[in-house]
Structure formats: C-alpha cells, structure tokens
## 1
Amino acid sequence: MIGPTTTYLGSDSAVHLSEELEDASYVLPRAMCASAIVNYGLGFVMTITLMFNLGDLDDDLTSATGQPWAAVIQKITRSKAATIVLIVVMIVMIFAFARDKGLPFHRFLSKVRPNGVPANSVYVTFSVTCLLALIIIGSTTAFNIILSVSATGLFTSYLIVIGTMLAKRLRRESFPASRFNLGILGWIVNLIAICFLLVAFLFLFFPPAPNPGPAAMNWVVLIYGIAIFFAATYYFVRGRREYEGPVMHVRKDV
C-alpha cells in the first residue's frame, strides 16, 4: 500500500503555504484542483516513460538504495532537483506550523533571522532528512515503517478534517461563506474520500505477508500508537493553551 498511497502525500501542502498567496480564498482551492489534474496527467506520462525505460528489473530490486523506485528514478532522471524542492517545501511548512505554536520548541523553530530566512527550521529539516537517509543503510524494513507511519499520520489528519465536514453536513449546520462551493457534490466528494481513506488507512497496518516473524512484522501500529500518545499528551499538557491557527494571525493582521 505504500506505493499507491504516497501519490496522495503532500496533496494538502498548498494549504499550509496559503499565507504566501494573494487572494488565497479564490486561488488556493483552484490551485489544489489544478495541481491534481496536472500531476495525475503528468504522472500517467511518467509511468509510460518508466515502463519503456525501466531496464533490468533485477538491478533495480537489488539496488544499494534498498528502494527500487528510487533506483529507477535516479537511473532515468539523474536529477536531485525534486529532492531539493521537497526539502524547501518542508522547511516552509515546519516554520509555518511552529509560528502557529503547533510544535514543541516552536519559539526556536519559528525564529526568523534579519535576512528573512527561518534558519532554525532549515537546520532541523536538514538534520532530520540526513537521519532518515541513514536509517535505510541499517534496515530497509525500518525505513518502510517510517514511510507507512508518515502515510497513516497524514491520512489520520485527512479523516479528522473530512469527517468533521461530513458530520456538519449531516447535522445541516451552516458553513462559513466560501468562494469555492461544490454544492451537492461536496457530499459525494466527502463520502468517496472517507471510504478510500478508511481502506487505505487500515491496510497500511497489515504485514507484507501472512504469519510474519519479528523481522518482517509491520510495526507501524506500534509506532503510530506511540506517536499518537505523545501528540495527545503534548496537546493536553501544553498545546491547547498555546496553539493559534493561521486564522488568528490573519485576523490580527487585518
């Protein structure tokens, strides 16, 4: 499930970067729809290209990276530009969330130098990226677990938000005025999203094969539970008193 579900990772990144936009309430939802159409279209073209240029599959499966998809992309593109772009996006997202006091050590992470660069967020992102890259050297299984935990965490956030939207629709509660209203299609989109997310979310906890041993076991459920425990603890102990959503900053600016 890791391969198919990773195509949805980061689909909400534009929301976290919306403060960089002008007229975000109009531009942002249309940009998200356009990004899906463009990326899935280009993804289809990329898939066809990969199929024709795959080469020796055994070499990719036994690549030193431990990740066949990484070996294929490296062999075909010979480019590190995509990795650099992802790191830059992650830096901005960490800074924005820390600025909203949603992360531990938010004062450190949200600090901006006089030149306008959130250097601390840059250093943290770089350090975490290096540590994650080192994990695959020791254990491919551990690296796959990290990928699965990332997907389950993101899907959890999607389920909470979309589930809340669907619950408000069922209770016939009103929504704030919107410049991108799907009308009755909103119900359909929410229901399809919930059904897909539930299936994908559950299967991410399954082991890769029946009757796995400790080495082949999918330990995502344990790591996910630990992460949820610490996140909930931080929220109830400190986060709920300090966290300010982006809306608060917009209202203050206005």
## 2
Amino acid sequence: MPSLLVVSGALAAVTSTIQIGTGVVLAPLHHPLRLAEDAATASLLSGGRLTLGLGLGWMGVEFEGLGADTRKRGRAMEEILGILPQAWSGEPFHHQGDVYRFPELAVRPVPSVPITVLVGGGAEPAIRRAARLADGIFSNATADRFLDQVGWVRDECERIGRDPAELQIHHYSVLLPGSSADEAWDHYAEHVWQMQWKYSDMEVSATRSGTPPTAPELTDDRRSKLRARSTFAGTGEEIVASLLEIKERAAVPVHFSARSYFPDLHYDDQFELMQQLAEGSRPAPVGNQSPTRQCRTLGRI
C-alpha cells in the first residue's frame, strides 16, 4: 500500500496504545523535508507511537514516474538519514548534498518524542548504512542471512566507534503455526506463494492493464524452495524455540514482528493465526501471577 504515513495517521486516530510503524516508506521517492513533516505529524497524532521504517525501493517504473533516479538512491538514502534528525530538531539548518540542496530553514512540526528510524534491506551496503546513520535495521532475511546482517552491524559499529547496543534489530518473520510443521505448511503454502509471487510480478503489473493475472501453479519444486527460505512453521512452542535460538546466536536483542496477513487468507484464519502465535509465546504461570501478565509477545522475545 502506498502513502504509509497517511495510513499511519488514520491508525493513530482510532488507536491509543499500539505501536505504529511503516514497513517501509521508500525514502528516495520522497523529498526529505516533506518526509520529515509527514512523519512528525503522524508521530504527534499518535502521541509518539510512530516508528519510521525506510527502504530504498527497486521498481524502475516508480522512480521514473516520480522523477527520481534509481542510480542515486543509495546516496539519496544517506542524505535523508542525515537530514531527518536535523529537521526534527526544530533548529534552522541547511543542506548542500549531491542529491538534495536547500537553504537554511526550520521544519515544523517538531515531534514530541524522538522518532525511531529503522532501515529495511538485505544487502550489505544497506545494513552498514543503517548501522552508521539509523536507529536499527528491519530485515526479513532467512535465519542464516539475518545472522550475517547482525555481523555486518557489529563490524560497522566497531569501525565507526558506535555501541551496537544502541541499535534496534528487527526481523519481519513469516510464522506459520499448526499442529506440526507439515500441517502448518500444507495450510498456508498457497497463501505464502501468492505473497512471494506478487512481489516478483509487481513491476510488470504496474504497466499492465486488464484483469490482474493469477499466480502460477505452486509445483513441488517451488514449494520446497519456498519452504526452505521463507518460513518458521510448527506448533507455537516450536516456533518460539526457533526464534529464541536465532536470538541466542545473534547475541543481541531481537524484535520479531509476525506477519499475520497473506493474500486470500480469510479474516477468521488471520485471527486464528495470531491467537496461536500468542498462545505459543505464553510461558507457564509462576506463583500467583496470571498467564496474561506473564505473556511475552513475539515482539519482545
């Protein structure tokens, strides 16, 4: 969905406690001053509950349509990550970069609390850029690749003299609960395949008219490759154990965000998925405390 900060403002208006985050705003498609204003406004509307997730983008047609240059997107992101904190300070500043230039000015409104900025991406340059300039990373990589990314964060922090504990490490996880891994995968495989295929078809469909195409058949070969790279499946307890293993190997705090929506998955199934994950992440009661008070959400593992 485009216009994520507009949606964030709408969510802020009808909620009061949940955290609201963008995953992700394609930063090089936005002027940094407008991005700063919109994020500050959404943050104020939410009472400081906004986390701003940013990404580079990759679809050429989007860049061409908005007059942006894909070849400069890395440099644009570097400059944007430097501009945003200055814009949110409320103090006058100016910028003369390779991509953006503007005279001395002050940006309004000013957020009431600092806005956390996470950078989504998988490539090493993007992860190292986040370690230098952002508040953390937002990854959906496989377990081994994710651990590589955590290593790049540590390396870059050591190189520039930054404490890696300052950064937030987030993983956007495809979690499929069921009575077993095989049962869960059988239930959700077509929906996961629809999601993966849609990303690959996105740039083609942006210039295509007529009836949207349907995904190709999920063959056995596609199924095995998809299962190998994209999911944690099993009982809630098994999924949590897998996530805890990753956290232990990463040796840093990791925030896990569970994907609970897939194409063509009925609302009732989405709700059941979230319930199963919540049950799986709830430890046994201790003493007189209720299970509810002890429930550890996946985002806090």
## 3
Amino acid sequence: MEIEKNVTKGNGESVAEEERNKNMKRKQCRQGGIRTLPFILANEVCDRFAVAGFSGNLISYLTQVMNMPLVAASNTLTNFAGTSSFTPLLGAIIAESFAGRFWTITIASLIYELVSFFPFSSLYNILNSIATN
C-alpha cells in the first residue's frame, strides 16, 4: 500500500489535491482538437469550390453580358477577390478592439441585408431615365 504524503502548500491545499484539481481542469477544458478537423477541412473545401465557380461565372458574366474587355473583367475579379479577403480582417479588428463578436456580427449582418435588398441596378436605370428626360 502506498502512503500519500499530505504536504501542504501556502494555500492549505495538499500537493495531491492540487494535482487532482489540475487533471480535472485539463479534462474539462478539452475542446477542439482532432474532432473539429473534419469540419474545418470540409468548410475550406466547400469554400474553394464556391470561389472557383463564382470566379468563372463572374468572368463570363462580365465579358458576355456586361460587354467588358477581358482585361477589365479580370481586373474587376481581382479587386473583388482582394476586397473579400480583406473584409474578414477588418471585421476581426473591429470585433477585437471595439464592438465585440456579437455586435460586430449583428451589425455586419444588418448592413449585408440592407445592401442585398437595395436594388442598385434599378436605381441606376431610374436615375439614368430621369437624367435623360
């Protein structure tokens, strides 16, 4: 039979109890790890497929429907890709420095919804018809 020494530290807790508490905290704080890896990889794969499909369709749309030259269309696509890669960094800075995660996501979602529902193309046509009359 092993005898456990109850050496106490300054806070009145024995060394053995402190070790048990550390082990319990380690077991409770286990998050992420290998369990989340498939979800992250699947998200990245789907994101890459979406970007590849979107890029091809945007080039076709800009060159065929909007009658842009290929150089201008590819420049527009590059600007769009750069902007969409930069905005998460901007959101992270705002969330970490000023507003917090919840408010940043809420306000960004509201702005996204307002912009997506606002018909910019029809506004352009309305203003153009008013200007020509």
## 4
Amino acid sequence: MLKIIVIVLLLCAAKKCNAAKIEAQQSLGSNTATKKPNAFKEFWTNHTKVWTAKSTDMFHYTCEREVLSNMNDTGLQITTYFDVKNSFTLNWTFTENDSITCTLSSNVKLRRQIIYENGTCAVLKLEVWSRNDSGSQENTYVLGQTNYKLVLDDKKKGNVPADCTQQYRRARGKRDTYKVYRDKCKNIEKKSQ
C-alpha cells in the first residue's frame, strides 16, 4: 500500500512540474509576441541630438543638449552638454514603462520616462531615487525628486510645437518652469569648436 501512495505522489508531482513548465513557456512566448520596443530606444533611433527647451529643475543653466554617443539592445550612452565647456556622459539601461535608468552609485539611481512624444519633441519625467545607507538588507529606493523637461529635435530647436507645450504644462502642473533654450544657443556649438 505504501508503494502505491509513493507512486501516486510522484506522478502528481511530475504532472505539476510539467504544468508549471508549460505555463512558463506559454507566458514567455506571449510576452515576446506582444512586447513593444522601449520608447527611448525608438526615440534615439530617430534622433542624434536633442535640446532642452524648458525644465522644472531650478538649476540655472542654458543651452542644454544631449547627444547620443552609443546604443545597443540593452541601453544607451548619452553625453549632456551645457553652454560651451561643461559636459558629462551617463550610461542608461532600457527598463519597463518606456523608461531608462542610470545607477550613479550604490545609493542613487536616476529614472527617465517618456510621457509624450510626437517625433520632433518629447516630454520627459525625471526622477532621482535614493537609498539610505543604514546597513539594512532592504534593496528599496525612495523617490527624492521629480522634474519634467521638454526636449526638441536638433532640427526644431527654438520652435516648440504647441502639442508639446500643452503636454509639458499638463505634466508639470503648477510647478515653476525655467526656459533653458535661448537665442544664444543657436550658435553655441560653433563657439566650442
């Protein structure tokens, strides 16, 4: 009798394992068939340089432009320039929800999300996430700051489409906005060469 019970248990366990394996294969297949490309990958496939027109970040700077340095299937590298001489380069990883993330340190992570895009401009949500270095085992980050910015394709610099302005206003709500792109930016790249 004990042998029969053991055999029945083994058969049931084998059946459950096979069912789980089939479910996992089906869910993997359905994800790859319906998964759309990351919006940042599509955006940077169609642009090599964008200019920041407006931002809710109160850091006073002008003539911010971002240039795609490199891109592959998992992420991209963007160099950000301010005015004539200042720049930095960050490596970003494509993530879900049309977002990219950049880990600055073990305690600070940046996240960007495209909330509107029309081919010539985009509205981005920028988040700074931080983790307290208290020695706890939890791998949780806390949202520290959220900003929004409106970026323009290099060919559109200085001419913000009305739909982008409207989407930017909707995203930022009542927060103050700062004009980053100014007329002097038109010739700034000639000065830096």
